[in-house]
């Protein structure tokens, strides 16, 4: 196959940042994607409906003229989040989900949740009104090995929460382990998972073999090869509980290439090319549309996009830049370590 037309995809987990960085990255998403769930971990975070409204306006103002991209806003859950404010956001249509960051789990998560009991009134209200909870599924207990944090989170936090509130709709975001995949597969209802582009491509060797490679460092950190293969099998299976959330997370190079580098991989620009490569390699191009364009909207109760994009396979590799320049500084683009031959038709690369 050398050409594939699919419904326009959406990105169900995206960091757009703010200010000059937002202006520098948004076109890479709006060029290919119709909608994206926008992460609220700004500094300071997006905690109220008023914050989300103002952030949405800034995103729309930064969009290239003519792009019809729709940002789907989230709230950053804290121990003080007001259930009435959350309900107001859902009723007005502004808020698509609430995000749980265990405090200290990742970038700008220090204002997140330490004691989930304190957030129960909000979670109960969300269960009642049908507002999904997006979860960064890692424990932060210092004794727990970083490669085990997802599996332990499932056992000690997620499963107890879902037993306590079975009506709560939960998205396990950026699943990185076979434990996560198995847990989602085993759930009867109200659980789905997003998978990133990079976790389908790299395992932990990419970060650590032959020198430390900060541009492959993200959280949850990439795991061993058997986990990557489990993610590939889930993503390409067509199972409606798995869908794309790129977790594209730009940081300027000086903040990645230093003694304590930030977590995050920038994939918005070449995600669709990477996915076409991965799905073709697994003989699953026929399920790419389900993963990137159908399963996500179905889970979030939205219609799939009406328009389409066409991916074309070229003889010569697609010339994505190694870095993009933003007003905030340079951002290195994800390098899948193989040439990309699939391009989104007419996207200029
Ligand atoms: O790698 C990551 N980067 N993981 C996250 O959970 C947050 C993100 C960011 O905001 O940079
Ligand atoms: Zn993220």
From TrEMBL:
It comes from the Bacteria. Keywords: Hydrolase, Metal-binding, Pyrimidine biosynthesis, Zinc. The active site is at 247. It is an enzyme of class 3 (hydrolase). Its cofactor is Zn(2+). Pathway: Pyrimidine metabolism; UMP biosynthesis via de novo pathway; (S)-dihydroorotate from bicarbonate: step 3/3. Its EC number is 3.5.2.3. Substrate binds at residues 15-17, 41, 136, 219, 251, 263. Residues 11-304 form the Amidohydrolase-related domain. The modification N6-carboxylysine is found at residue 99. It holds the Pfam family Amidohydro_1. GO terms for biological process: 'de novo' pyrimidine nucleobase biosynthetic process; 'de novo' UMP biosynthetic process. Binds 2 Zn(2+) ions per subunit. GO terms for molecular function: dihydroorotase activity; zinc ion binding. Zn(2+) 2 binds at residues 99, 136, 174. One of its GO terms (cellular component) is cytosol. Zn(2+) 1 binds at residues 13, 15, 99, 247. Homodimer. Catalyzes the reversible cyclization of carbamoyl aspartate to dihydroorotate. Belongs to the metallo-dependent hydrolases superfamily. DHOase family. Class II DHOase subfamily. This is Dihydroorotase. It comes from Allorhizobium taibaishanense.
């Amino acid at each position: 196959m050398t050409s594939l037309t699919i419904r326009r995809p959406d990105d169900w987990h995206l960091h757009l940042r703010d200010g000059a960085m937002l202006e520098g990255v948004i076109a890479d998403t709006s060029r290919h994607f119709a909608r994206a769930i926008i992460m609220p971990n700004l500094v300071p975070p997006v905690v109220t409906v008023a914050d989300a409204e103002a952030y949405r306006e800034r995103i729309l103002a930064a969009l290239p003229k003519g792009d019809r991209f729709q940002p789907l806003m989230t709230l950053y859950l804290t121990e003080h989040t007001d259930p009435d404010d959350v309900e107001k956001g859902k009723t007005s249509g502004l808020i698509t989900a609430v995000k749980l960051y265990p405090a200290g789990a990742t970038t700008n998560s220090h204002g997140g949740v330490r004691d989930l009991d304190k957030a129960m009134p909000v979670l109960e209200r969300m269960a009642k009104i049908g507002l999904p909870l997006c979860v960064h599924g890692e424990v932060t207990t210092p004794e727990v090995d970083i490669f085990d944090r997802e599996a332990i989170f499932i056992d000690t936090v997620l499963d107890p929460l879902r037993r306590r509130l079975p009506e709560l709709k939960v998205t396990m975001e950026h699943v990185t382990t076979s434990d996560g995949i198995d847990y989602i597969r085993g759930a009867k209802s109200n659980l789905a998972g997003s998978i990133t582009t990079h976790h389908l491509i790299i395992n932990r060797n990419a970060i650590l073999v032959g020198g430390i490679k900060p541009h492959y460092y993200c959280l949850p950190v990439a795991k061993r090869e058997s986990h990557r293969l489990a993610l590939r099998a889930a993503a390409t299976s067509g199972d409606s509980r798995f869908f794309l959330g790129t977790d594209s997370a730009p940081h300027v190079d000086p903040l990645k290439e230093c003694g304590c580098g930030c977590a995050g991989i920038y994939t918005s620009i070449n995600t669709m090319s990477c996915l076409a490569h991965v799905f073709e390699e697994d003989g699953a191009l026929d399920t790419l549309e389900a993963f990137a364009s159908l399963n996500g909207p179905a889970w979030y109760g939205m219609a799939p996009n009406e328009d389409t994009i066409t991916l074309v396979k070229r003889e010569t590799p697609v010339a994505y830049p190694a870095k993009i320049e933003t007003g905030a500084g340079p951002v290195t683009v994800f390098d899948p370590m193989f040439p990309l031959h699939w391009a989104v038709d007419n996207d200029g690369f």
